[in-house]
């Protein structure tokens, strides 16, 4: 990745970049909402046509009596859904590309493929790869059933929302009116979900654009000068990053960038070390010197905020780490750090040093 200038690093957004990012995001969200509305209208029209053409007048029709209706309606719904998803994917990739250009990201040949894939995953709402990277397994502390349940809940969101909204409309509106309007209840739901998902996708893409630059600069501020750290301190620094990964059960691209930036500065971890065990990380903290513990906690804080979130498992890890280091909780300082990073604000070294001060 081309190095940003010291005056305007990629993760710091100036006034022009902020306005440009807002313009890109606003246009993408409006187009996503419109795509959802058009899909809802088209599907509703197919529903009305199939109901009139193959309507059944008995209260409990047999399945074969309803088969023509479902064949026509189902085919139309699938076709329009494919068109909508295809358009959203294409427009998402285009919008993410515009967003990275506005933020000042330029790619060198050596890392263009990896960064482009990370941005494409954000645009297409694809999960991060589950494979271990540099000795860190994101699913080390997750059960398979938890992962399956989380995926199922995500996929059911829109279906459940549509069903509940349709039941509300059917219960509130008169029977004559609802017969025609029920076919179009998906319009506001599709538009709302598309808008929310598009906003979340672009936010995530912006985080991925800023992450590598922020990780490098914040590590430079924390690991200032001095000789290379002792082996036990180096291991704790690597484990700080890895612990955030295993607690969130996801290897975010910014965490990969953080691991690489850390290795560039302090070297490879010793062979045979188990890096992705958060319990080992917490147990070894008390044995470090006071200065080393504070440095490790600052690296932990940077790792916790690099994905733009501070979820409950990360907050719990931070609380446990500060307690193990015998230092007052620095969660408020970490929250301020996260807000500054997500907003693209300048993060002065003293704000980093306020963590574990």
Descriptive overview:
The chain has helices spanning 15-54, 63-102, 109-123, 144-172, 175-181, 186-222, 231-248, 253-266, 278-284, 290-305, 312-324, 331-343, 349-353. α1 runs antiparallel to α6, α4 runs antiparallel to α6 (186-222) and α7 (231-248) packs antiparallel against α8. The longest helix is centred in the first third of the chain and has 40 residues, at 15-54. Residues 1-10, 107-112 and 165-170 have low confidence and may be disordered. The protein has 2 domains: 15-209, no CATH class; 210-353, no CATH class. With 357 residues, the protein is an all-alpha fold.
Spell out the blueprint of helices and strands.
Blueprint: H1 15-54, H2 63-102, H3 109-123, H4 144-172, H5 175-181, H6 186-222, H7 231-248, H8 253-266, H9 278-284, H10 290-305, H11 312-324, H12 331-343, H13 349-353
Helix pairs in contact: 1-2, 1-6, 2-3, 2-6, 3-6, 4-6, 6-8, 6-10, 7-8, 7-9, 7-10, 9-11, 10-11, 10-12
């Amino acid at each position: 990745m081309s190095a940003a200038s010291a005056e305007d690093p990629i993760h710091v957004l100036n006034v022009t970049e902020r306005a440009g990012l807002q313009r890109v995001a606003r246009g993408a969200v409006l187009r996503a909402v419109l795509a959802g509305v058009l899909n809802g209208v088209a599907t509703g029209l197919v529903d009305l046509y199939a109901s009139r053409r193959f309507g059944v007048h008995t209260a409990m029709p047999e399945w074969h009596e309803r088969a023509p209706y479902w064949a026509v309606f189902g085919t139309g719904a699938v076709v329009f859904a494919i068109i909508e998803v295809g358009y959203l994917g294409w427009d998402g990739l285009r919008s993410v590309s515009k967003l990275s250009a506005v933020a000042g990201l330029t790619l060198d040949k050596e890392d263009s493929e990896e960064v482009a894939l990370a941005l494409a995953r954000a645009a297409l709402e694809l999960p991060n790869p589950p494979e271990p990277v540099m000795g860190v397994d994101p699913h080390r502390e997750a059960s398979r059933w938890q992962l399956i349940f989380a995926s199922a809940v995500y996929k059911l969101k829109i279906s459940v929302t549509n069903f509940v909204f349709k039941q509300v409309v059917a219960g509130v509106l008169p029977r004559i009116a609802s017969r025609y309007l029920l076919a179009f209840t998906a319009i506001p739901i599709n538009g709302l979900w598309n808008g929310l998902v598009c906003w979340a996708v672009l936010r995530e893409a912006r985080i991925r654009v800023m992450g590598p630059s922020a990780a490098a600069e914040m590590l430079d501020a924390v690991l200032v000068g001095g000789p290379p750290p002792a082996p036990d301190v180096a291991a704790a620094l690597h484990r700080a990053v890895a612990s955030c990964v295993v607690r969130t059960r996801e290897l975010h691209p910014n965490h990969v960038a953080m691991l690489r930036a850390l290795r560039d500065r302090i070297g490879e971890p010793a062979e045979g070390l188990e890096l992705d065990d958060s319990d080992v990380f917490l147990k070894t903290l008390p044995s470090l010197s006071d200065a080393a513990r504070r440095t490790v906690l600052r690296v932990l804080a940077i790792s916790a905020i690099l994905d733009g979130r501070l979820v409950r498992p990360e907050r719990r890890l931070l609380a446990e780490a500060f307690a193990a280091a015998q230092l007052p909780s620095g969660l408020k300082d970490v929250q301020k750090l996260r807000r500054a990073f997500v907003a693209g604000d300048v993060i002065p070294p003293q704000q980093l040093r306020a963590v574990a001060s």
